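USER: Study each token:
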Amino acid sequence: MVEWIISDGLTGYDEAVSFMEARVAAILAGEAPEAIWLVEHPPLYTAGTSARAQDLLQARFPVHATGRGGQYTYHGPGQRIVYVMLDLNRRGRDVRAFVGRLEAWVIAALAEFGISGRISEGRVGVWVPRPDKPALPDGTAREDKIAAIGVKLRKWVSFHGISINVDPDLDHYGGIVPCGITGHGVTSMVDLGLPVTMTDLDVALQQQFGVIFR
């Protein structure tokens, strides 16, 4: 049984990390079930284990070093953060397969709203094609990132997780090179013309979780 937790308002990043640390310890001790925690953060940047100093262009918001994989990313209001505390001892000790299932979960949830999310070779996360925007100088078709993924494992229990752009201020990404990738941009569900609420997305995530994580 997976416990779903939805927090109202904005949750501080340090508070979130402390909660996840405690919950992972409890899962490992057999004292608590797995959990999916849905939150929003105030504006901030996080630096993953592969973050490069030159990708922090302007520290407009607090910067938090974090143990998750990946590089720099932005979190803020209008973005659904999905913290996944799942026990891979029972779900299969395969990191690549786990990340693939997280990507498939996001893609399935976005499909509920007619968004064709996809993964792209060499770029972690979920992307949407943007034929309405000019191609890159080398002729590559433009894609925008709509969801980022960065996880950490402790004795095969996961934490950190996913961020999905519902309606954040996309200008806030201007202080970083998101995930170290240039050329392609970022988008959101509302930016794509869909008047989606956070609750709408939460419902889709809960419906599709049982399909992807049987």
About this structure: The chain has a mean pLDDT of 93.
